[in-house]
Amino acid sequence: MLKIEEVYKSFGNQAGTEQQQVLQGIGLEVGEGETIAILGPSGSGKSTLMNIIGALEEPDRGEVIYRGRKINDYTEKELDRFRNEEVGFVFQFHQLLPQCNLQENVLIPTLVSKADRKEKRAYAESLLKRTGLWEHRHKLPGQLSGGECQRTAVIRAMINRPKLLLADEPTGALDGRNVDVLTDLLMELNRDEKVAIILVTHSRELASRMGKVYELKNGVLHQQ
Ligand SMILES: Nc1ncnc2c1ncn2[C@@H]1O[C@H](COP(=O)(O)OP(=O)(O)O)[C@@H](O)[C@H]1O
Ligand SMILES: [Mg+2]
User: Fold this and answer.
1) In terms of pTM, does the model score above 0.90?
2) From the CA of 134, how far away is ligand 1's center (Å)?
3) Tell me, what's the pLDDT at 179?
4) Count of structural domains, the chain
5) Is 79 part of a structural domain of the chain?
6) From CA 186, how far away is CA 35, in angstroms rounded?
7) Is residue 45 part of a domain?
Protein backbone atom coordinates (compact mmCIF):
# COMPACT_ATOMS: atom_id res chain seq x y z
CA MET A 1 0.00 0.00 0.00
CA LEU A 2 2.75 2.44 1.00
CA LYS A 3 6.41 2.17 0.22
CA ILE A 4 9.34 4.33 1.27
CA GLU A 5 12.50 4.15 -0.78
CA GLU A 6 15.94 5.50 0.11
CA VAL A 7 14.67 8.48 2.07
CA TYR A 8 17.27 11.00 3.25
CA LYS A 9 16.71 14.07 5.38
CA SER A 10 19.11 16.50 6.99
CA PHE A 11 18.63 19.77 8.85
CA GLY A 12 20.95 22.75 8.97
CA ASN A 13 21.76 24.38 12.29
CA GLN A 14 20.62 27.92 12.95
CA ALA A 15 23.83 29.46 11.70
CA GLY A 16 23.53 27.36 8.57
CA THR A 17 27.11 26.19 8.99
CA GLU A 18 26.50 22.51 9.60
CA GLN A 19 24.14 19.86 8.32
CA GLN A 20 22.80 17.24 10.66
CA GLN A 21 22.06 14.00 8.82
CA VAL A 22 18.88 12.64 10.39
CA LEU A 23 17.54 10.03 7.95
CA GLN A 24 20.14 8.23 5.87
CA GLY A 25 18.49 5.86 3.45
CA ILE A 26 15.21 4.73 4.96
CA GLY A 27 13.29 1.93 3.29
CA LEU A 28 9.96 0.60 4.55
CA GLU A 29 6.92 -1.17 3.17
CA VAL A 30 3.51 -0.98 4.78
CA GLY A 31 0.86 -3.44 3.67
CA GLU A 32 -2.92 -2.91 3.95
CA GLY A 33 -3.98 -3.30 7.54
CA GLU A 34 -0.44 -3.97 8.76
CA THR A 35 0.79 -2.80 12.17
CA ILE A 36 4.33 -1.48 12.57
CA ALA A 37 6.18 -0.15 15.60
CA ILE A 38 9.16 2.19 15.39
CA LEU A 39 11.47 2.39 18.37
CA GLY A 40 14.51 4.60 18.70
CA PRO A 41 16.28 7.04 20.98
CA SER A 42 15.09 10.59 21.37
CA GLY A 43 16.30 12.73 18.48
CA SER A 44 16.87 9.76 16.17
CA GLY A 45 14.44 11.10 13.57
CA LYS A 46 11.22 9.17 14.31
CA SER A 47 8.96 12.21 14.09
CA THR A 48 10.77 13.43 10.99
CA LEU A 49 10.10 10.06 9.35
CA MET A 50 6.42 10.11 10.36
CA ASN A 51 6.05 13.64 8.98
CA ILE A 52 7.60 12.57 5.69
CA ILE A 53 5.28 9.54 5.45
CA GLY A 54 2.29 11.79 6.12
CA ALA A 55 3.47 14.36 3.55
CA LEU A 56 3.91 17.06 6.19
CA GLU A 57 7.62 17.30 5.35
CA GLU A 58 9.53 16.61 2.15
CA PRO A 59 12.57 14.34 2.05
CA ASP A 60 15.83 15.66 0.60
CA ARG A 61 16.07 12.52 -1.47
CA GLY A 62 14.06 9.34 -1.95
CA GLU A 63 10.39 8.61 -2.48
CA VAL A 64 7.20 7.90 -0.63
CA ILE A 65 4.99 5.82 -2.90
CA TYR A 66 1.33 5.43 -2.06
CA ARG A 67 -0.69 2.89 -4.01
CA GLY A 68 1.87 2.86 -6.78
CA ARG A 69 2.24 6.65 -7.14
CA LYS A 70 4.98 8.90 -5.84
CA ILE A 71 3.50 11.51 -3.53
CA ASN A 72 6.23 13.78 -4.85
CA ASP A 73 4.20 13.88 -8.11
CA TYR A 74 0.92 14.80 -6.41
CA THR A 75 -0.70 18.15 -7.14
CA GLU A 76 -1.41 20.43 -4.16
CA LYS A 77 -5.02 19.31 -4.27
CA GLU A 78 -4.07 15.64 -4.24
CA LEU A 79 -1.67 16.29 -1.36
CA ASP A 80 -4.42 17.95 0.68
CA ARG A 81 -6.67 14.98 0.02
CA PHE A 82 -3.92 12.53 0.96
CA ARG A 83 -3.22 14.32 4.26
CA ASN A 84 -6.87 14.71 5.14
CA GLU A 85 -8.38 11.43 3.99
CA GLU A 86 -5.78 8.74 3.36
CA VAL A 87 -3.77 9.20 6.55
CA GLY A 88 -4.75 10.00 10.12
CA PHE A 89 -2.39 11.57 12.66
CA VAL A 90 -2.19 11.15 16.43
CA PHE A 91 0.52 12.96 18.40
CA GLN A 92 1.84 12.75 21.95
CA PHE A 93 -0.36 15.64 23.02
CA HIS A 94 -3.94 15.47 21.81
CA GLN A 95 -4.03 18.92 20.17
CA LEU A 96 -7.80 19.16 20.43
CA LEU A 97 -9.23 22.66 20.01
CA PRO A 98 -9.91 23.87 23.57
CA GLN A 99 -12.96 25.94 22.63
CA CYS A 100 -14.73 23.09 20.79
CA ASN A 101 -16.51 20.22 22.50
CA LEU A 102 -15.55 16.59 21.88
CA GLN A 103 -18.12 16.02 19.17
CA GLU A 104 -17.08 19.17 17.30
CA ASN A 105 -13.42 18.24 17.65
CA VAL A 106 -13.82 14.81 16.08
CA LEU A 107 -15.76 16.30 13.14
CA ILE A 108 -13.14 18.94 12.27
CA PRO A 109 -11.45 16.84 9.53
CA THR A 110 -14.83 16.43 7.81
CA LEU A 111 -15.32 20.18 7.38
CA VAL A 112 -12.95 20.53 4.43
CA SER A 113 -13.99 17.43 2.52
CA LYS A 114 -17.10 17.11 0.44
CA ALA A 115 -17.82 13.90 2.29
CA ASP A 116 -21.31 12.93 3.34
CA ARG A 117 -21.77 14.83 6.61
CA LYS A 118 -24.61 12.66 7.79
CA GLU A 119 -22.61 9.50 7.40
CA LYS A 120 -19.64 11.11 9.20
CA ARG A 121 -21.81 12.23 12.11
CA ALA A 122 -23.15 8.70 12.43
CA TYR A 123 -19.62 7.29 12.31
CA ALA A 124 -18.49 9.79 14.97
CA GLU A 125 -21.41 8.71 17.14
CA SER A 126 -20.54 5.03 16.82
CA LEU A 127 -16.86 5.66 17.63
CA LEU A 128 -17.70 7.92 20.58
CA LYS A 129 -20.11 5.29 21.93
CA ARG A 130 -17.60 2.51 21.46
CA THR A 131 -15.00 4.40 23.51
CA GLY A 132 -17.37 5.46 26.29
CA LEU A 133 -17.10 9.14 25.29
CA TRP A 134 -20.61 9.67 23.95
CA GLU A 135 -21.92 10.89 27.29
CA HIS A 136 -19.09 13.47 27.35
CA ARG A 137 -19.63 14.71 23.78
CA HIS A 138 -20.76 18.19 24.83
CA LYS A 139 -17.81 18.73 27.19
CA LEU A 140 -14.71 20.75 26.37
CA PRO A 141 -11.28 19.05 26.33
CA GLY A 142 -10.36 20.92 29.52
CA GLN A 143 -13.17 19.14 31.36
CA LEU A 144 -11.81 15.69 30.52
CA SER A 145 -8.85 13.54 31.52
CA GLY A 146 -5.73 13.16 29.40
CA GLY A 147 -6.77 9.62 28.49
CA GLU A 148 -10.22 10.72 27.36
CA CYS A 149 -8.75 13.54 25.27
CA GLN A 150 -6.27 11.21 23.62
CA ARG A 151 -9.04 8.73 22.74
CA THR A 152 -10.92 11.65 21.22
CA ALA A 153 -7.82 12.53 19.18
CA VAL A 154 -7.73 8.96 17.86
CA ILE A 155 -11.39 9.19 16.80
CA ARG A 156 -10.70 12.52 15.09
CA ALA A 157 -7.82 10.88 13.20
CA MET A 158 -10.14 8.04 12.11
CA ILE A 159 -13.19 10.07 11.12
CA ASN A 160 -12.43 10.15 7.37
CA ARG A 161 -11.69 6.40 7.43
CA PRO A 162 -7.98 6.70 6.55
CA LYS A 163 -6.07 3.67 5.29
CA LEU A 164 -3.06 4.51 7.48
CA LEU A 165 -2.91 5.81 11.03
CA LEU A 166 0.34 7.54 12.03
CA ALA A 167 0.67 7.56 15.81
CA ASP A 168 3.72 9.43 17.12
CA GLU A 169 4.22 8.49 20.79
CA PRO A 170 0.45 8.57 21.36
CA THR A 171 0.77 7.13 24.86
CA GLY A 172 3.81 9.22 25.85
CA ALA A 173 1.80 11.51 28.12
CA LEU A 174 -0.51 8.83 29.59
CA ASP A 175 -0.31 6.77 32.78
CA GLY A 176 -0.34 2.97 32.91
CA ARG A 177 -4.04 2.16 32.71
CA ASN A 178 -4.70 4.76 30.02
CA VAL A 179 -1.78 3.41 27.99
CA ASP A 180 -3.54 0.04 27.88
CA VAL A 181 -6.94 1.53 27.04
CA LEU A 182 -5.46 3.57 24.19
CA THR A 183 -3.44 0.66 22.82
CA ASP A 184 -6.50 -1.60 22.95
CA LEU A 185 -8.41 1.04 21.00
CA LEU A 186 -5.71 1.21 18.31
CA MET A 187 -5.66 -2.59 17.98
CA GLU A 188 -9.46 -2.69 17.80
CA LEU A 189 -9.52 -0.08 15.03
CA ASN A 190 -6.87 -2.03 13.15
CA ARG A 191 -8.96 -5.19 13.41
CA ASP A 192 -12.39 -3.70 12.68
CA GLU A 193 -11.59 -0.85 10.30
CA LYS A 194 -8.58 -2.55 8.67
CA VAL A 195 -6.52 0.61 9.13
CA ALA A 196 -2.75 0.11 8.93
CA ILE A 197 -0.86 1.62 11.87
CA ILE A 198 2.64 2.98 12.28
CA LEU A 199 3.27 3.55 15.96
CA VAL A 200 6.27 5.38 17.37
CA THR A 201 6.91 4.44 20.97
CA HIS A 202 9.62 4.15 23.62
CA SER A 203 7.98 1.07 25.07
CA ARG A 204 9.22 -2.31 23.87
CA GLU A 205 6.17 -3.88 25.47
CA LEU A 206 3.83 -1.71 23.43
CA ALA A 207 5.91 -2.23 20.31
CA SER A 208 5.64 -6.00 20.72
CA ARG A 209 1.88 -5.76 20.15
CA MET A 210 2.51 -4.62 16.58
CA GLY A 211 3.05 -7.06 13.74
CA LYS A 212 6.52 -5.76 12.91
CA VAL A 213 9.01 -3.86 15.05
CA TYR A 214 11.78 -1.61 13.70
CA GLU A 215 14.41 0.41 15.44
CA LEU A 216 15.60 3.71 13.99
CA LYS A 217 19.30 4.09 14.69
CA ASN A 218 21.91 6.27 13.02
CA GLY A 219 19.43 7.23 10.35
CA VAL A 220 18.55 3.70 9.29
CA LEU A 221 15.69 1.34 10.16
CA HIS A 222 16.58 -2.11 11.52
CA GLN A 223 13.88 -4.75 11.73
CA GLN A 224 13.89 -6.48 15.12
N1 LIG B 1 12.58 21.53 11.51
C2 LIG B 1 13.75 21.19 12.03
N3 LIG B 1 14.82 22.02 11.96
C4 LIG B 1 16.02 21.67 12.46
N5 LIG B 1 16.27 20.49 13.07
C6 LIG B 1 15.26 19.63 13.18
C7 LIG B 1 13.94 19.92 12.69
N8 LIG B 1 13.13 18.85 12.93
C9 LIG B 1 13.90 17.95 13.57
N10 LIG B 1 15.17 18.40 13.73
C11 LIG B 1 16.27 17.67 14.35
O12 LIG B 1 16.33 16.37 13.81
C13 LIG B 1 16.62 15.40 14.80
C14 LIG B 1 15.50 14.37 14.83
O15 LIG B 1 14.31 14.95 15.33
P16 LIG B 1 12.97 14.13 15.51
O17 LIG B 1 12.58 13.57 14.20
O18 LIG B 1 12.00 15.02 16.18
O19 LIG B 1 13.44 12.94 16.47
P20 LIG B 1 12.60 11.97 17.42
O21 LIG B 1 11.16 12.10 17.03
O22 LIG B 1 13.15 10.60 17.14
O23 LIG B 1 12.86 12.39 18.82
C24 LIG B 1 16.77 16.16 16.10
O25 LIG B 1 18.13 16.37 16.34
C26 LIG B 1 16.06 17.47 15.83
O27 LIG B 1 16.60 18.51 16.59
MG1 LIG C 1 9.50 12.62 18.12
Assistant:
1) yes
2) 37
3) 92
4) 1
5) no
6) 10
7) yes
